[in-house]
Write a structure and sequence with these properties.
By secondary structure, this protein is of the alpha+beta class. The chain has one domain. The protein is 57% helix and 13% strand. It has a two-stranded antiparallel sheet. A hairpin with a 6-residue loop joins strand 1 and strand 2.
């Protein structure tokens, strides 16, 4: 990925931008990768395969509504959304589902932002 840097040059009283490209340093990649590894491959109250599916935006039917809501508009998740799932999932399992969905959504947004920077 590259980032545009502007340098100012002022010949004859005008401002001219010269664009230079250099790679964007992703200093948080090691932390993000460690988080992904622990979340998606580590032990948990839910199977790792389920957490991986949820992080990818896919989930079993009863969880799809919650996962879709977290991916598209997390601020609209309510207690009623979780109450509908509490008879099938424990609090620990719901926590893992929510974290996996939020992590997946964040990863997708980060990837989109990086693509936009690359194309700029």
């Amino acid at each position: 990925m590259r980032r545009r840097l502007a340098e100012r040059d002022e010949p004859a009283g005008r401002s001219v931008e010269l664009l230079q490209w250099r790679p964007v340093d992703d200093r948080f990649a090691p932390l993000r990768n460690a988080t992904a590894s622990a979340l998606l491959h580590g032990p948990g109250a839910t199977p790792a395969e389920l957490r991986q599916q949820i992080a990818a935006g896919r989930a079993p039917g009863e969880l799809m509504s919650l996962v879709h809501k977290i991916w598209s508009r997390a601020y609209t998740v309510t207690d009623q959304d979780l109450d509908a799932l509490r008879n099938r999932y424990t609090e620990e399992q719901l926590f893992e589902v929510i974290v996996a969905a939020a992590f997946g959504a964040a990863q997708e947004r980060l990837a989109a932002a990086r693509r936009a920077l690359e194309e700029a």
